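INPUT
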Amino acid sequence: MRREGSPWRGLSVVYFRELFDHLTSVRMLVLEFLVVLFGGAVVYFSAEQVRNTTAEDPWLFAPPGQTLLSFMVVLSILVPIMAIGLGFDSINGEYNRRTMSRILAQPIYRDALLLGKFLAGLSTITISLITLWLLVMGFGLLRLGIPPSAEEMGRLVVFLMVTIAYAGVWLALAMLFSIVFRSTATAALVSLGLWLFLSLLWPALAQLFGEVISPSDIRFAMLGLPTPDTLAWQQGLARLSPGTLYGEAVVAMLNPDSQSLSTLLAQFQGRIAAPLPLDQSILQAWPQIVSLVAGMILLYVVGYVVFQRQEVRA
Amino acid sequence: MSDVVIETHDLTKRYGGNVAVDAVSFTVGRGEIFGLLGPNGAGKTTTILMMLGLTDVTSGSVSVLGHNPAREPLEVKRVVGYLPDTVGFYDHMTARDNLNYTAALIGIPSAERDQRIASAVDRVGLDAVQYQQVGTFSRGMRQRLGLAEILMKQAAIAILDEPTSGLDPQATAELLEMIRTLKRDGVAVLISSHLLERVQSVCDRVALFNAGRIALIGSVPQLASQVLGGGYHVEVEAEGGNLAATLLAVPGVKAVEAVGPGRFRLLAEGDVRPQAAAAVVNAGGQLRRLSFEEPSLDAIYNRYFQSQAEVQHAA
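OUTPUT
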């Protein structure tokens, strides 16, 4: 049955209220505290590292060699926590406060409520990430005394956008669970549990499953090479985790001479390792970026469908 | 009560195999207070949600001011104010901010917003606490704030789901009085409640729900004469002589029941208090008390379902 009236009606009202709510909440204060804490720590360790080695590409965000705490590692942990923290009670919280039926009795569609909440959450994370990004850059400038080049800036901007998409995936996931589970504690626990599983356990399991599905060929093994089929399966499975996709995209963007994505190519074609220009790096990270955005949209759509079919009665 | 604002026809809602609302038909007129009464789980809230387009209709039809809630939910929700069962607000926001948010969702122009909120808050008596956080509000205050939201919306229809449940007697009386003022403004009010006695005084007409169906519909006196038969009960407390026979001889009295020593309950066709008093005095009895029993909805409800159960047993 076709419904009349615009689904966008009330979107901006919901968006600005939710954004205001997020920005003034205690939760946001904690997140900001984490941002400053981690920002400071990252700059300190990275700058020490860079000072000890050289001050060339790729500047501060992925310093060469091993660092105790790289910006990328920090973000891959901090971003899911922020997103889950903002999203885990967005829908079931309304039911628990018994505001849902009252709000939905106003002349708006559920679309506006859900999208407004999602966009407000994403904007909140974006604000935090930009803050963190600028903090790190500012501290880095002060500490290193070398400004990044234009190409490096380009890389850093793309990196920021990839991070926002990564945050969107986790936010959409947390909101999906907040729709499915009526208890906020359950939603938070399931989101965090899934995050731990995907980031800690899944990479190892992907190796295992890849081996099971397509066992290594002895001929490759004798040469000390991975079997192409096995490797393809392992990589494909590992990429089900948004963390893996994010890591690969970031490595491609920040380590222009990385070969991690093209291990196979490099090995078979004997590619000479050389730094890639910016547009080639983007091209290399493109599948990962698209996958992250697609994952975010997919999770949002699943949540949307479930929410539309849900009974409003608490 | 001329023009109809809500009309349902064979409205039905099924959840899987369960029938929550079964072929419900009724109409509500402009400026009428209509009660949907019945026990919990009888399908009252589901009926309301279907009227608001918040849940799908399985079959049948519902029309709110000529709009179909399933097709034009925004049009319906623009003219209908809804006070849900145990209404919730954002506790960390002030009463005023909560109303501001709903006003923005409704789409009240910002120029009018302040004035409309102020007058609504004033009418429900919350003007002194409007800048306090709703978290500090009692249940009665929340219900009144919900009513303020409906006033601010200038709704043509107010749907109140269990507005009095969990309120103390004074808060209930205040709320019912506010509901009467809504009626004076020409707002059609639909009240759902399981507390029959409490809301019967404000309702023009009621529909008694049971297991998803409307068992009885009409005004309280109509239902009383339909179910209790004859309708009027007069209680007499007097002493001396054979009063039962004397009272039975009073014209209009159909039956006399001795409910205690010197206490009689008369079933009559009308208000027979003057005649009964005269009869007692003429027979040399001492009249202690004479009272007229309003037909209560509880009695009607219980009697009706008792007789239904007896019919089922017999069958």
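end of record. Chain B has a mean pLDDT of 89.
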